[in-house]
Amino acid sequence: MAKIIDGKQFAADLRGKMTTQIASLKEQHNIVPGLAVVLVGEDPASQVYVRNKGKQAKECGINSIEHKLDESTDEAFLLNLIDEMNQDPAINGILVQLPLPKHIDSDKVLNAIDPAKDVDGFHPINVGLLSTGGKGMIPCTPLGSLMMLQDYHGDLTGMNAVVVGRSNIVGKPMFNLLLQQSCTVTVAHSRTKNIEEVVREADIVVAAVGVPELVKGSWIKPGATVIDVGINRIETDEGKTKLVGDVEFESAVEVAGAITPVPGGVGPMTIACLLYNTMVAACRHNNVDMPEA
Ligand code: GUN
Q1: Ligand 1 test: best mutation among 40, 43, 49, most atoms within 8 Å of CB?
Q2: Which residue, of 106, 132, 162, 208, has the fewest CB within 10 Å?
Q3: What is the pLDDT of residues 54-89, one digit of tens each?
Q4: Is 53 in the active site?
């Protein structure tokens, strides 16, 4: 049986450390990191995310600013708001919750955010900095996944990693992060031939395809570490719904050496890393070193 990597606990520990670090920033430099979150419209899942972000930010000592805008908000208004926040020295992180309403060009909006305040790491400048090994902002979900891998394994040098999925938000940045850690990285996707055999070579599997329970236990090399980024709501035989990952947990847990569950694995790490990025941005904007935890 695999060890279960408890992302909920890991995220709570990380927030605990950040609370100490943010308290020292205030004490030593009078800095309070500020995170602005923009939500346009009434998407229920987005509302839950934004509420959790705000609550956890405050608990860590981050100043959380929320802009809840009407569904009918136009692009020019949003671009103007972003411009104001780019200029505001009290705001270190800007996050525009996706998806945006259809009449707004998401790329245009994301590209308007100052890359130094882009705590999502979605701006093309940050994408480029990650792939060239520069000092940018790293997308939250891949960063949280890497933190858990490093905590479990220590040094990842020379390990075979297979990332299943090639999205801009998870697959591609995860590839870059694992490569930076000197893993041998393969990106598998919907058109990969013999995907089961490719995955079976991996010491580390990161599944981020958005297909419920695609990766089976039989695909996994005995003892491998499995990071399941998927969050899919499916119907059970009893007509209820439940959350499952991109990995078939019941079979994978028998074969893997360690595995993240869904829920309670990668999910809680995403918000914790958003707060982490906000703290990093605040230190950089003020030219101070990050305090010890
Ligand atoms: N919508 C769902 N997850 C995310 C996220 O991590 N960042 C943003 N900006 N929007 C999201």
Answers
A1: 49
A2: 132
A3: 999 999 999 999 999 999 999 999 999 999 999 999
A4: yes
